Every structure is written in C-alpha cells, then in structure tokens.
Amino acid sequence: VTQLFRWEKRLIARFVATSVAPPLSGMAVILLIREFLDGAMGVEGGLMAWFVALAGAPAAIWLLAGSLLLAYLLGSVANYDNRVCQQRIVKVLELGMMERLIWRLLTLSVPFFDRQSHGDVIQAVRQDVSQMRQAVESAANVLLNGLLTVGLFAAAFWVSPRLSMWAFIGLPLAALPVLLLARRTLERSYLVRQTGYALFDVVLQILRGIRVIKAYRGEGREAAASVVKGRQYFDELIEMVRIRSFSQVVMESIAGFGVVLVVVVGGMSVMSGDLSWAQLTAFLLAVRQLHGPIDNVHRNYVQMKTYGASVERIVTLLDARPQVVDRPGARRLEAPPSRIAFDRVRFSYEGEEEPALAGISFEVRAGETIGIAGASGSGKSTLLNLLVRFYDPVGGRVLFDGVDLREYRLADVYDKVAIVTQEPFLFSATVRENIRCGRRGASDEEVEAAARAAFVHGEILELPSGYDTPIGPGGRGLSGGQTQRINVARAILKNAPILLLDEATSSLDSISESEVQRAIEPLMGNRTTFVVAHRLSTLRRADRILLLEQGRLVAVGSHEQLRAESALYRELWSIQSFAPAC
C-alpha cells in the first residue's frame, strides 16, 4: 500500500492535518463552553473573566460566541476536507491495487491458473479489491476517530480528572470482548468469502454450459445447486452480522454504565461542593461527544476484520510468484532452432500421481510437420505446453539446438511460437485489433493481407463495420469457423517459425473444418509445425506422427508406416474411418 502513495506525499500530509484538526476543534469547543458557564456563574479567573476585564461583559459574550463559532467552522471545514482526501486516497488505492493485481495475474505461470477457481480469481479482482479499499477506509476512520477520542478525553480530563476515571473505567473491560468478537468476525469473513466465490462458480458454470443445461433439461438441478450455494453464503453472512451486532451491544452497554456512574458521582460531587454545575455540564457534554467517536472506532475496527479475508487474499495474490521464470543470466534466442528435441522428458501435474508424460524422447528438424496422436489423456496437449514452456518438465530436458529450453529467455521463446487452439480465443475488441495482437506494429495493409491468407477477408468486410466491428469475448457474434480463421490470421501475421496447432479444427463442423484447414495449410509452409489432432485424417500429410499412449511414446512414423506397423494406430484409424482394421 505504501508504494501506491509514494508520489502522493502532499495528499497524505493534507489527510493527516485534517485528521488532527477536528479533535483540536472539539477540545476547544468544550473548554470554551466551560469558560462561558464559569463566567456566567461568577467564577473568578479563566478566559471569560479575562474577556470581561478586557472589553466588558456584552463584548466578552460576543467574543466567546465568535470563538465558539470559529472553532466549529474550522472543525467542520477540516472534516469536509478530510473526507475529500479520503476519497482521493481511495481512488489511488483501489485503482492502483486493481492495476497491480491484474499485472501480477498476467505475470503468473499457467500452472497457477490450473489450480485456481475462476470464481475465486474473478472475485479477487471484482470484489476483494473494493473490500480492501473499504478496509483501508475503515482504518483511516479508526485513526480519525481515535484522534478525536483522545482529544475529547483530554478535554474531559482537564475539566475533571476524578470524573474521567469513573466515566471511562469500563473501557479497558470492553476491550477484551470486543477483540474476541473481532477475531470471530475475521474467522467468519473467510467462510463468507469462500461461500461467495463458490456461488459465483455456479453462476459461471451456468453461463458456460447453458446450451448443455437446456438440451439435457438440467435447469432444475442447476437452480437447486445455486440455491444451496446461495443459502450457505447468506447463512455465513447473517452469522457475521450477528457477531458484529453483539459486539455493538457490548460497547453500548459499557458506555451506558459509564454515563450512569458520571451522573451519580458527578451529582454527589456537585452537592458536596467539590464540583461546579458548569464543570459537570461541560463534562457531560464531553462524555456525550465521546460516545460517537468511540462507537466509530469500534465499528470501523470490526469492519476492518469483516474484510480481513479479502485483504489477505489480495496480499497472497500479490505475493505469488510465477513458477516458470528466466534463469539468472538467461541467454537470448536470436534465431529459430534448427533442431528441437525431447530428451527423456517426464512431467506430472500437481496433485496427480500418474505422470502425464513418462520418459518421452524424439528429435525434430526445422521445417518438419509433426503430428501428435493418441487417445484422450495420453499427453498430447501436455507435450505442446512443455514445448512452448508453459510448464517445465520435472525430469529430462526440452532442447533447442542442444540447449535446454530453460536456458533461454521466456520472452524470446514466446516470440518464436504461434498457437492456434481448440477453443479459439478473441479479445473484446475490434476484428482488426484481434488480428493485430499477433504483431502490434503491423499496418492495416498487413492485417488485411493476413486475413486474406486465412480466407476470412471477404467475410470480415460483410460485418457491420468491417475490420472495425467490435466482437465479444471468444468471438461472440461470429461463427465458429470465422472465429478460428481470425485466430489463424493472427498466427499468420505473427509469422513465427514454430507453429502449434492444438485440435484447431476438432470443434467445427465439416464445412467450417474444411475452411479452417484451407487457411492453415499455407500457414504451415516452411515452419516447424506440431499438430495435435483426434481426427487422424488431418495428420495424413505430416512428415512424421508421434503416437502417445498413457504418457508414453509408443510409435513414430508416417501415416502409412503406422498403419502398417502399429496395432494401436490401426485401431484408432479403424474406429474413426468405420473400416475394419487391416
């Protein structure tokens, strides 16, 4: 937090100054009222007597009244400016924290997101940042009201030290139950947050799977699941409110006990002549004013604990570090590799006992097209993830020209690779901006040339605003084939020497698949290409095919060689072609 305000020193100084002014104003008001009452009752000495001696009784009243008005005005203006400062601080904090959090998420490695609930991450950006801002705002209010409490207590002690001891004897006793209840509030905040993002996950699942839900008549089941999650969330929320409300009862009860003591002890002191009515009145005024700040300190302290889970989650995310990073002194990858090799590569996903890849070894020359085949779960996509270094192997090495891939800078590795995935991804931006993200400095002519090469230029021109047509996340408003060909255009524009095609046509109908395949074929020319496909027909033109089974490389060869030599490949081929195995 302190880093966000390193350029806001004047704002912080202004906030501190305006935080101190209201307590000083409150002290001045109480003391001036006491002086006025003492003067009115004929008590010798004091400020009122000095005003009377200086300017006469009528003028003294006006002078004291003007001093009171000035103290009120200064306190009110300072309080107003303090609230303005608070909101500016909130803006710096919330926007700055959101920016830092998003940047941190973007720097983390792919394995981090594999372990996280999407609802949890979205809640961190959407709600936790806002609640952290409220926690800081509550801390500022604790500071402001704490200063005001100290000032008013000093004024009350000045009026009557004896009564002050009786009035506030219960405050230390109140601290222990308040601290215990605040701790329970903090514990409850974790459960509220956990049930909150669990409910959010259910909503995300409904949005992603609405077609499947409707097709299989699952509306009732999903509605029931969301109600269960919602009930858990609101039950935890109600329990938190109950704890907070009970702590308020404790504070108000002890405050009331203090007032009763002041009335009894103060009344007896006035009757015995140890205390004047002016002193008792000023003291009761101070005590009355003190209840507000003390209550605010308590309420804002509990509020801080209410948002404790959100604050800790933000801190945890900001402290997270990527697992896949550049090694010290990492070398530049100047030219595309002429040889890519897997040397006894092993990999297991976190929390899984069975290896995703077990001792994979092969070598690829620049310009080759390598197909990767196998049943679901055999490790095909994992192999691509290691090749682009989204993950690091737990054993063995991935080599570029005989050098461990981990020795190169990550940015250079990413620059040498273009990816077209099974689920095409488009940003919430225009068509032009989506293609241009393949190469940020590309001209409009180069963007359109890439679209022509991907056979999607004509269809883009038919959109309402052509290349400047905004499209939704994932290509909302476009067909699956159009969305995927825009992804291909992006890869063409990047012009990377290594191309990864991860089930690029598997989710398309036969016509769209043919269109996308036609766009991909020129993209594969003169590039080292790795093609993952369930449909073996798309791998027939590959120079070699790697056949995986349960994380092991069981065969390597061309389509015809594998049909002749591999029983597993023949079985996969016969299933897909509806022909008997030969």
Written description of the protein model:
The protein has about 575 residues and is α/β, with parallel strands linked by helices. It is about 65% helix and about 10% strand. It has 20 helices and twelve strands. The strands form three sheets. A six-stranded mixed β-sheet has the order 6-9-10-3-11-12, with helices on both faces. α5 runs antiparallel to α7 (about 170-210), α5 packs antiparallel against α10 (about 275-305) and α9 (about 220-270) packs antiparallel against α10. The longest helix is centred in the middle third of the chain and has 54 residues, at about 220-270. It is elongated, with a radius of gyration of 36 Å. The relative contact order is 0.08.
- Cα distance, first to last residue? 69 Å
Compute the CA-based radius of gyration: 36 Å
The helix content, as a percent range, equals: 55-70%
The largest β sheet comes out as: 6 strands, mixed
Strand arrangement, largest sheet? 6-9-10-3-11-12
Structural class: alpha/beta
* Overall shape: elongated
How many strand units? 12
Ranges where pLDDT stays below 50 over 5 or more residues in a row are: none
What portion of residues belong to β-strands?
5-15%
Average pLDDT, rounded to a whole number, is: 79
Number of helices: 20
How would you sum up this structure in a few lines?
With 582 residues, the chain is an alpha/beta fold.
Tell me the layout of helices and strands.
Layout: H1 9-40, H2 46-55, H3 57-107, H4 110-115, H5 118-159, H6 161-167, H7 171-208, H8 210-215, H9 219-272, H10 277-306, H11 308-319, E1 339-347, E2 357-365, E3 369-374, H12 380-387, E4 395-400, E5 403-404, H13 410-415, E6 417-420, E7 429-430, H14 431-436, H15 444-453, H16 457-461, E8 470-471, H17 480-494, E9 498-502, H18 510-524, E10 528-532, E11 544-549, E12 552-557, H19 559-565, H20 567-577
